[in-house]
Every structure is written in C-alpha cells, then in structure tokens.
Design brief:
alpha/beta, Rossmann fold, 4-stranded antiparallel β-sheet, 6 helices
C-alpha cells in the first residue's frame, strides 16, 4: 500500500492553476524527485503532499485514509506523528537553540526526556551539526540552517519525508552525505521520500524522477 497517493489533485493559487490534475503514488522505501523551475508549483505540491494544504479538488490518501474526511485536529496529529516536512525557507524558532529546535517535535509527541538525547544525537552526528547544538539559528550559515530543519524533520522517525528544495544551500559533499542518510533511512525503516528541486539536469539517487510541467507530472526518462 502507498504511504501517500494523490489522485487528480488540482490547486489554484492567486488565480493561477498551479496543479492541474496531479497523480502521484509514494510507496515505502521509495525516493521520488519532482523537478521544475521556480514558480511552477513545486512548493504547492509539497505542501499538499505534507497535508499542510488542501487541494481544491482531487483526492489525497495517507496510509489508505481519505484525508478529506479527517478533521483539522486529526490532520495536525497525523503530520506531527508521521510526516517530516522540510521547507525551503529554513524556518526555525530564533529563540531556541539548535538542540531545542530539533527536540521540539519529540517534546510535542511526549517522548520521555531520558530518550531524547540519544535520538537527537544520532541525527546531529550524521548531519554534521555536532558542536553547533547551543547556537541560535541567527548564528548559523544557510547550509547549517538547512541541516537543522532536516534534522528536526527526521528526528521523530516519520514514515513520509517531504523536502522542498532541501539541497539549495548545501555544497556537493554535504548533499552526498545527506542524500546517503535519507536513502539509508528509506531502506532500513521504509521511509517514503518526496524531494522537490529546481535542478533540471543533475543526476540524483532516486527511484522515480518527474518534471512538474503545466501543472502535471511528467516522468523523466
């Protein structure tokens, strides 16, 4: 069964029909890329996939459930427990340290404090954030902030990761390390991954590769 399935999803933003009937299935352990130029609707698609935005029409299934039948509190609970979302704006809470930003979803999920350190330490180590735990977001570079946002999304061990332009501020070596970690998680835990990118040509270690063109997905060959 698919973790996420979009059927005929349409969405209008500011009078523009950015999604015109998107069909997409995300299965466990699969990494899917959606490419497109800025402004074509990739962020809208990412937010619909992460259950942050409702489509105007079409169906969105999460773990077999029709999400249009879920209440706002049920949607919020589903996002917290099962979905990791990485936004391209690197949104962090400025008043919190790196550690506290990463820890936040675990606190909201009522994970015991004694269990948090090990969970956070693992992602901090893998994503190259060791030594930065006590810094505030304003003290970080763009690439560091991006990795903190990714760590916050992954620390709760979601079943779906939606990453909107996650590599925009990272150098090639960091992209390789981060992508390797995502692939490992997908393989070991069954994580389903959707990545959007403006890079139309570079090779990526993904299972399915699409372009978003005129509001629909076209398989990259």
């Amino acid at each position: 069964m698919s973790v996420l399935e979009l059927q005929g999803v349409r969405k209008t933003i500011g009078g523009d029909n950015v999604l015109r009937g998107v069909d997409l299935s995300l299965r466990p352990s699969r990494v899917v890329a959606v490419r497109g130029r800025s402004g074509v609707g990739k962020t809208t698609l990412a937010k619909v996939a992460a259950l942050l935005l409702k489509p105007d029409s079409g169906l969105v299934y999460f773990n077999g459930l029709d999400t249009s039948k879920l209440s706002e509190s049920e949607l919020s609970s589903t996002r917290l427990k099962y979905i990791g979302y990485v936004d391209q704006d690197c949104s962090l809470i400025d008043e919190l340290t790196v550690w506290e930003n990463i820890e936040l979803p675990l606190r909201l999920m009522n994970i015991e404090r004694s269990n948090r350190a090990g969970i956070i330490g693992e992602v901090v180590e893998v994503l190259g954030l060791k030594g930065l735990e006590s810094r505030r977001p304003r003290e970080l570079s763009g690439g560091q902030r991006q990795r903190v946002v990714l760590a916050r999304a992954l620390v709760k061990k979601p079943i779906l990761l939606v990453a909107d332009e996650p590599f925009a501020h990272l150098d090639d070596e960091t992209v390789r390390v981060v992508m390797g970690y995502i692939r490992q998680l997908a393989s070991v835990s069954g994580l389903a991954v959707l990545i959007t990118t403006t890079d139309l040509y570079a090779g990526m270690d993904v299972d399915e590769d699409y372009y978003l063109v005129n509001g629909v997905l076209v398989r990259r060959t």
